[in-house]
Design a protein that fits this description.
The complex is a heterodimer of chains A (340) and B (265). With 340 residues, chain A is an all-alpha fold. Chain A contains 13 helices and no strands. Chain B is of the alpha/beta class and 265 residues long. Chain B has a single domain, classed as P-loop containing nucleotide triphosphate hydrolases (Rossmann fold). In chain B, 34% of the residues lie in helices and 24% in strands. Chain B has nine helices and ten strands. In chain B, the strands form two sheets. Chain B has a six-stranded mixed beta sheet with strand order 6-7-8-3-9-10, with helices on both faces. In chain B, helix 1 crosses helix 5. Chain B starts with a helix and ends in a 7-residue tail after the last helix. The chains are: A mainly alpha (340), B alpha/beta (265). Chains A and B meet through helix 10 and helix 11 of A and strand 6 and helix 4 of B. Chain B: Involved in beta-(1-->2)glucan export. Transmembrane domains (TMD) form a pore in the inner membrane and the ATP-binding domain (NBD) is responsible for energy generation. Chain B: Belongs to the ABC transporter superfamily. Chain B: This is ABC transporter. Chain B: InterPro entries: AAA+_ATPase, ABC_transporter-like_ATP-bd, ABC_transporter-like_CS, ABC_transporter_ATP-bind, P-loop_NTPase.
């Protein structure tokens, strides 16, 4: 009986909602979007209101672009209900758009307009935009070179690390010989090999590939090994009573069971190989984003450095996103995996 | 096709195998010291019999099952399946463990298919997997992953994974031990039905006297470790059996007495 009276109360109360809560609800839902639009208008105004203290060619276009973004945000927020998932995504990210707009405005004012931060070490946003528009070919070449070097070294290192890890985890004899070597060489930072690698390998390219593979291989080996070693004996017992041969035990029991560990190794290897990549490019390889950074520094082209850093961080983050996407596909059977 | 396979499985049951356990002694090496677990165990099981092994916890029953499965070798004595010596695991002797130990990375169907896949005959025998899933009533869950199953469902999948191989000897190591009491009673009835339908020889380790008496033709009572055969009791009652049957209650009192628990009765 009491449940009936409760729902009756709710039903009769519903139509009596007044206008004030409606407005409050609208502000709660769309306020951040409107604020974001305002922040980007502020950014646009900060670009166009004052004269630049330096000579940058993209200030006007940047101001216009900021107004365009502000307009899109505003219309998107107002019409979010008609835009489906895009509208929802905009609402969810609106607070970040506010923060970004405020940050860009402060940055613009503090650098290009009043030079509170010393130039040329702190270039304004339009200087970085200028790099992307005017120095694009060289930047793209560098991106391409970095990706090629990283991908080659990483794939070689991951493959060798995985095979070594499975072998050590599976075979006592392999473990006997490989384990001490791994303990001796593995913890050494791969960059410590730089001087030796650069004169023993025929090219700086192959030397860098070797170093990236080394940096990737160690964590992948150790985690694959620990993954294989920690597989419960019960799984092997079950498979053996069902008629499994040793090859089946390795390929269909040990490796799938170890896969969550393997992905932790691949993730750690990716991180340490990025470090090696950049150092190798700065020191020996005459291409890639690391080299671009070094080159820009040599010319005191600080805007180029920031531009390259932003690209580099997008690439590294993208690589990790890709790795996690692959993991989520392969490990759908796991509960509660970390979302990247 | 599933129904046809099922019908075939019913009309041509895989006959059970005889099992001979002859003077088996076994011990564990723990830090150099020898810990005896089985002492002169001799049991002869007829084809198609349902034998329950009952004994105090940790007495060595499960060790005996591992020897029968061929997972371990005895220190002394021999084990034979239909006159051929047991030296290694064979899909004709399949174990269902206390934990379902399903492979979490495989779907229910792929878990049941494990034995056929390991023996390299899955491609031509896929219908056997479907039939086994049908047998335990889990066809609707073929694409589920183990973490989505309840304890009883997981143990049914483990049972299907064993039965799909048409074992001659089914080895059950307290398979119902971790289930709730209602699920346990249901699955006891299912086990008896499957055994009657398929005709395999069954070896069940349990420490529940009632479960042993409801299920088995024969109850073998073991002593404390090292396990010796203390009593070999025939249970001549038709199936389905009733828990309240005074004949079974009487046997239960005897068995608990053998285990030194008559004071609690």
């Amino acid at each position: 009986m009491s449940t009936y009276s409760l729902s009756d109360g709710l039903a009769s109360g519903a139509p009596r909602i007044s206008r004030a809560p409606l407005l409050a609800a609208w502000v709660k839902e769309s306020g951040a979007g409107v604020a974001a639009s305002a922040a980007w208008i502020a950014f646009g105004l900060s670009c166009l209101w004052w004269e630049d203290v330096g000579d940058w060619s993209r200030t006007h276009s940047l101001g216009i672009a900021a107004f365009v973004i502000a307009a899109i945000t505003l219309f998107g927020t107002v019409g979010a209900d008609y835009l489906g998932s895009a509208g929802r995504a905009l609402r969810q990210r609106a607070p970040w758009l506010v923060a970004l707009g405020v940050f860009l405005t402060l940055w613009e004012v503090a650098t290009a307009k009043f030079a509170w931060l010393p130039l040329p070490f702190f270039p304004p946003p339009q200087a970085i935009i200028e790099v992307y528009t005017d120095d694009l070919p060289k930047l793209l070449d560098s991106v391409f070179a970095s990706v090629r070097l990283q991908l080659g070294g990483y794939l070689i290192g991951a493959t060798i690390g995985f095979l070594t890890g499975v072998s050590i985890g599976w075979s006592r004899a392999v473990g006997y010989w490989v384990h001490p070597v791994l303990r001796f060489i593995g913890p050494l930072p791969a960059t410590a090999w730089l001087p030796i690698a650069f004169f023993t390998f025929p090219s700086s390219w192959s030397a860098s590939t070797f170093l990236i593979a080394l940096a990737t291989g160690f964590p992948v080996t150790v985690l694959t090994w620990s993954g294989v070693a920690s597989v419960s004996n019960a799984y092997y017992d079950v498979a053996r009573t069902l008629g499994a041969k040793p090859s089946f035990l390795v390929l269909k029991v040990a490796i799938p069971a170890a896969l969550p560990h393997v992905f932790v190794g691949l993730f750690m290897g990716l991180g340490s190989s990025f470090a090696v990549l950049v150092v190798a490019e700065m020191i020996g390889v005459k291409a890639g984003l690391g080299w671009y950074l070094q080159w820009a520094q040599g010319w005191a082209a600080y805007a180029n450095m920031y531009a390259a850093l932003i690209v580099m961080s997008l690439l590294c983050s993208g690589a990790i996103t890709l790795l996690f996407a692959i993991r989520d596909r392969l490990l759908v059977w796991q509960k509660g995996t970390v979302k990247w | 096709m599933v129904a046809a396979a099922l019908a075939e499985a019913i009309t041509h049951p895989a006959a059970g195998a005889a099992l001979d356990i002859d003077n088996v002694n076994h011990a564990f090496d723990i830090d150099g010291a020898e810990l005896p677990v089985l002492s002169d165990v001799s049991i002869s099981v007829e084809p198609g019999e349902f034998v329950a092994l009952l004994g105090p916890s940790g007495c060595g029953k499960s060790t005996l099952l591992r020897l029968v499965a061929g997972l371990d070798k005895p220190k002394a004595g021999t084990l034979r399946e239909d006159e051929s010596r047991i030296r290694s695991p064979q899909p004709s002797r399949v174990v269902v463990f206390q934990d379902p130990t399903l492979f979490p990375w495989r779907s229910v169907w792929d878990n049941v298919a494990l034995g056929l896949e390991a023996q390299g005959i899955l491609k031509s025998q896929r219908q056997r997997v479907d039939a086994a899933l049908d047998l335990v009533g889990l066809s609707a869950f073929r694409n589920a992953y183990p973490h989505q199953l309840s304890g009883g469902m997981a143990q049914r999948v483990a049972l299907a994974r064993a039965l799909v191989n048409d074992p001659k000897i089914l080895i059950l190591d307290e398979p119902l031990g971790k289930l709730d009491s209602l699920t346990r009673i249901t699955m006891q009835a299912e086990l008896v039905a499957l055994w009657q339908r398929k005709g395999f020889t069954t070896l069940l380790v349990t420490h529940d006297a009632e479960e042993a008496l409801v299920l088995a033709n024969r109850v073998i009572v073991f002593s404390e470790r090292p396990a010796r055969v203390k009593a070999d009791i025939r249970v001549d009652r038709p199936y389905p059996r009733h828990r309240g049957d005074p004949y079974l209650a009487d046997l239960r009192r005897q068995i608990l007495g053998l285990l030194g628990l008559d004071a609690t009765w």
